[in-house]
């Protein structure tokens, strides 16, 4: 079920990933016939959403005994002194701070809380996923103004078997719309014109070349 935090529902997210995997096979079998990815697609109003396994530093002003760093549990909640099972997943750090203040106000007078994220994973629906013939396929936390080159550097580039110019970027925030991207030109030939912005939830599919 989608929430006000902008999360993609689990069934829809699974469909996007499955669709991307199907696209791997289709791309490998024929040249892509998708439009080129837009060069500019940055999300100007992007706000980071806390995900499972993120580490958050909670600072309660004038209450050092209540200030600490905690990891968000796999169930998306955190626990601190005076606060048990506070939902954190999908919350912006400022919103989580206000939630903590509301709960702590039951035992403290006018609590002031600051939340700083120090270990980043992010919610799964906003991670950038790279699958196929990347050197290190993985899910990467999105950051503002991130580009395709940033993503490919993080996954270690392409394997020797990759057909980089047949790669496809699937835009999860646009209902899974596919775009062509020229990874070989970008990484092997240094063609910066092949670099494009990525958005939260994008999936990069790198097919194997046929020799």
Protein model, in words:
The protein is an alpha+beta fold and about 210 residues long. The chain folds into two domains: about 10-45 and about 125-205, Roll (Outer membrane lipoprotein wza fold like); about 55-120, 2-Layer Sandwich (wza like fold). It has four helices and ten strands, in the order H-E-E-E-E-H-E-E-E-H-E-E-H-E. The strands form three sheets. A five-stranded mixed beta sheet has the order 7-6-10-8-9, sandwiched between helices. The chain has a three-stranded antiparallel beta sheet with strand order 2-1-5, covered by helices on one side. A hairpin with a 5-residue loop joins strand 6 (about 130) and strand 7 (about 140). Mean pLDDT is about 90; it is low at about 1-5.
How far do the termini sit from each other?
A: 44 Å
Structural class: alpha+beta
By CATH, the superfamily of the largest domain comes out as Outer membrane lipoprotein wza domain like
**What is the chain-wise order of helices and strands?**
HEEEEHEEEHEEHE
Measured as a percent range, the helix fraction is 10-25%
Strand content: 15-25%
Rg calculated over all Cα atoms: 20 Å
CATH fold type of the largest domain:
Outer membrane lipoprotein wza fold like
Please work out how many helical segments DSSP would assign.
4
CATH C-level class of the largest domain is Alpha Beta
What's the story with the biggest beta sheet?
A: 5 strands, mixed
Stretches where pLDDT is under 50 for at least 5 consecutive residues are 1-6
Oligomer: single chain
Tell me the number of strands: 10
Mean pLDDT: 89
Major beta sheet, strand line-up? 7-6-10-8-9
